[in-house]
From TrEMBL:
EC number: 2.7.4.25
Matching HAMAP family: Cytidyl_kinase_type1
Similarity section: Belongs to the cytidylate kinase family. Type 1 subfamily.
GO molecular function, one term: kinase activity
A family per Pfam: Cytidylate_kin
Residues covered by the Cytidylate kinase domain: 6-223
Top EC class, one word: transferase
Protein name per the record: Cytidylate kinase
Main location: cytoplasm
Residues annotated as binding ATP: 10-18
Source species: Flavobacterium erciyesense
Length: 227
């Protein structure tokens, strides 16, 4: 069968990455988590103190962008790629609630988006890729053969993200996680550059009431129709 490009977009914590990983593994495709890239830039900006609870020095970050190198490296044992920032593994550091609280601010900056989108297009030029994010079907791969737009209720999503963080030993409250999910969704859908919106030719999948297996079966069927 011929290799296609699969774009998965949607709100925070809709299970995009779970689905994308399942698909990539099953099809032998490359999986790219673009959220990890925005998170790594955020982590960098926090380390350099361009972003603190006191404010955000956008100009300083933009000026420093050429010094940020992002790389995915496949981890055989885990079965997926991990994020490296300037050669350092940051997979754990980029998943904290602190990074989650700032990331949508970083993702509003056009210069940041331009840099990451260019790298994402490059990664997908040979197809056989599953990419998840907020602007994949609209901006990164507008010609993708399959575009999925995932949705689920905010409370379902917050509960999932909360369970994930607690399992990792993070001291967070459900209310804090729900607030973060709602704030990110608001910023992501209202920004000027590449707001989160469903592509006209995307297929909406609401997984509030679907198990992982059911959701996978639905999307696999869509893939089969296109390969
Ligand atoms: O997917 P994840 O929740 O890890 O993404 C973190 C944040 O990165 C999103 O809330 C959004 O602000 C930003 N993002 C984006 N465009 C993408 C992927 C993520 O703006 N393609």
């Amino acid at each position: 069968t011929n290799k296609i490009t699969i774009a998965i977009d949607g709100f925070s914590s809709t299970g995009k990455s779970t689905l994308a990983k399942q698909l990539a593994q099953h099809l032998g495709y490359v999986y790219v988590d673009t959220g990890a890239m925005y998170r790594a830039v955020t982590y960098y900006a926090m380390q350099k103190e361009y972003i603190t609870s006191a404010g955000f020095d956008v100009a300083a970050l933009v000026n420093d962008l050429p010094n940020i190198s992002l790389q995915f490296q496949f981890n055989q044992a885990l079965g997926f790629a991990e994020m490296y920032l300037n050669g350092v593994l940051v997979e754990k550091e980029i998943r904290t609630i602190e990074v989650s609280n700032f990331v949508s601010k970083i993702a509003e900056v056009s210069e940041v988006r331009a840099k990451l989108v260019e790298q994402q297009k490059e990664m997908g030029k040979n197809k056989g890729i599953v990419m998840d994010g907020r602007d994949i079907g609209t901006v990164v791969f507008p010609d993708a053969e399959l575009k999925v737009f995932m949705t689920a209720s905010a409370t379902t999503r917050a509960q999932r993200r909360f369970d994930e963080l607690v399992a990792k030993g993070d001291a967070v409250t459900y209310e804090e996680v729900l607030k973060n999910v709602e704030e990110r969704d608001y910023i992501d859908t209202h920004r000027d550059d590449s707001p989160l919106v469903m592509a006209y030719d995307a297929i909406a999948v609401d997984n509030s009431a679907l198990t992982r297996e059911q959701q996978f079966a639905v999307v696999l069927d869509l893939v089969a129709q296109r390969t």
